[in-house]
Design goal:
- It is a single chain.
- The protein has 435 residues and is α+β, with helices and mostly antiparallel strands.
- It has 2 domains: 203 residues, 2-Layer Sandwich (Cytochrome Bc1 Complex, Chain A, domain 1); 198 residues, Cytochrome Bc1 Complex, Chain A, domain 1 (2-Layer Sandwich).
- It is 39% helix and 18% strand.
- The strands form 2 sheets. Strands 1-2-6-3-5-4 form a 6-stranded mixed sheet, sandwiched between helices. A 5-stranded mixed sheet has the order 7-11-8-10-9, with helices on both faces.
- A hairpin with a 4-residue loop joins strand 4 and strand 5.
- The protein is globular and about 65 Å long.
Length: 435
């Protein structure tokens, strides 16, 4: 159980606080409801650029990092298609220094031409290193553009092309900042050795005077389900053939999301998972096999992925079939789906078993509980729960309510071969044209 209190400022900033007297530290986390899905299709990568620009100096603080280091702290950030998150850690006695820093960059950036040029070059170089010059680096670009034909999820967080970042102007930066980085579009989460009274006084002192802003609406349409199976084959400088099968799945908080998360654990998490036992130990076709979800706010992807030992076209086709067949077995449910004690003869061959569901739920509960021991992770989890409008203490119970019947029904609905999007990524050494 995580104890917390929450309040909202007059400008719309939501604040959630966990008091932890067992540490001498404090974590301050600011989660903004803006990500790559909020970008213009001709200026992608802007949200990620902003993650960097937010460290380039604000109205009253020209050097963010120097101030936080002077307070004995550290900071970092991340961007996704949905959100941008900033977090700071310092000794609790310097709590208000962190509030000062975060409030000043929420109030307004310095909009320095030098900072824009420096961070523009950093982001473009990161694009080259992680997506252009790395094996499989453009895999997410290829996969997303196949799965999403209309929705902005069709472009990864890094952006569609470095040229989009090259043309960003100072006016573009100002427009994006003032239409998204606002107190009424953010959650401030605090965890550490600061009392509720300290938090309220400090937050009101540093954040209450920041004006709320008009947040740009999201006007894009939802992505329709594929009207049939899709397939793309590409070539690149990669060591092995990689196959990915992606299925559209519900977004966070929608019916079936939790079941999809558990399905990927049943398939590929740990040495007792199906992929490990049947595809890796029981076959010489794969060198690795995995299953993951994108975990996005709007309908995302459940992905089955495998790297192949044999680069032949026949092996790739067999691999795709094996991945899909292994996953489709979960569509069968045990004859007594709500019993946690069972014998193997009670379950249909290949069907998901209560033991597998219980193991996946226990793994999630364990990971969630142990990660919450960290005051920094607790602050980030509290921020996300508040952004979702949920009680953080209800997350694990929601997973525990899932039954084998629910898993089987979701697998039957999501793992539909009519909606499968298959990407085959081959080494350039093989004969054939380069895509």
């Amino acid at each position: 159980m995580i104890d917390y209190n929450r309040f909202t400022l007059s400008n719309g900033l939501r604040v959630i606080h966990n008091y932890d007297p067992t540490t001498a530290m404090v974590a301050v986390n600011v989660l903004y409801n803006v990500g790559a899905r909020d970008e213009d299709s001709e200026m992608t990568g802007l949200a990620h650029l902003f993650e960097h620009l937010m460290f380039g100096g604000s109205v009253n603080i020209p050097d963010f990092d120097a101030e936080i280091e002077r307070a004995g702290g550290m900071n970092n950030a991340w961007t996704s298609n949905d959100f941008t998150n900033f977090y700071d850690v310092a000794p609790a006695r310097n709590f208000e220094t962190l509030l000062w820093l975060e409030s000043d960059r929420m109030l307004g950036l310095a909009f320095s031409d030098k900072a824009l040029e420096v961070q523009r070059n950093v982001v473009i170089e990161e694009f080259k290193q992680t997506h252009l010059n790395r094996p499989y680096g453009d895999l997410s670009h290829r996969l997303r553009e196949m799965v999403y034909r209309q929705h902005p999820y069709g472009v990864p967080t890094i952006g569609k092309d470095p040229s989009h970042i090259e043309k960003v102007t100072q006016q573009d930066v100002r427009d994006f900042f003032f239409s998204h980085y606002a107190p009424n579009n953010a959650v401030l989460a605090i965890s550490g050795n600061v009392s509720p009274d300290q938090v309220r006084r400090g937050v009101e002192r540093w954040f209450d005077s920041i004006p709320c802003r008009d947040v740009a609406p999201r006007n894009y349409a939802p992505e329709p389900l594929p009207d049939g199976p899709r397939e793309t084959e590409v070539r690149g400088h990669v060591p092995q053939t990689c196959v990915v099968v992606a299925y559209p799945m519900p977004g966070y908080g929608q019916p079936g999301y939790i079941e999809c998360d558990l399905i990927t654990d049943i398939l590929a998490s740990g040495r007792s998972s199906r992929f490990y036992r049947r595809l890796l130990l029981g076959s010489d076709l794969f060198t690795s096999a995995d299953a993951v979800i994108t975990g996005s706010e709007e309908p995302g992807m459940l992905m089955l992925k495998g790297n192949l030992a044999d680069p032949s076209e026949e092996a790739a086709r067999v691999a795709v079939e094996r991945l899909m067949a292994e996953a489709s077995q979960l569509c069968y449910q045990a004859s007594r789906p709500d019993r946690l004690s069972y014998t193997l003869t009670e379950a249909r061959p290949g069907g998901v078993t209560p033991y597998e569901v219980e193991r996946a739920i226990n793994r999630f509960a364990s990971d969630f509980t142990f990660s919450s021991l960290s005051y920094l992770q607790r602050a980030q989890s509290l921020a996300m729960a508040e952004m979702h409008g949920e009680d953080i203490n209800e997350i694990v119970p929601a997973y525990r309510r899932v039954t084998t019947a629910m898993i089987a029904n979701t697998a039957r609905r999501v793992l539909d071969p009519r909606h499968a999007c298959v990407l085959i990524y081959r080494p350039t050494e093989q004969s054939g044209p380069t895509a």
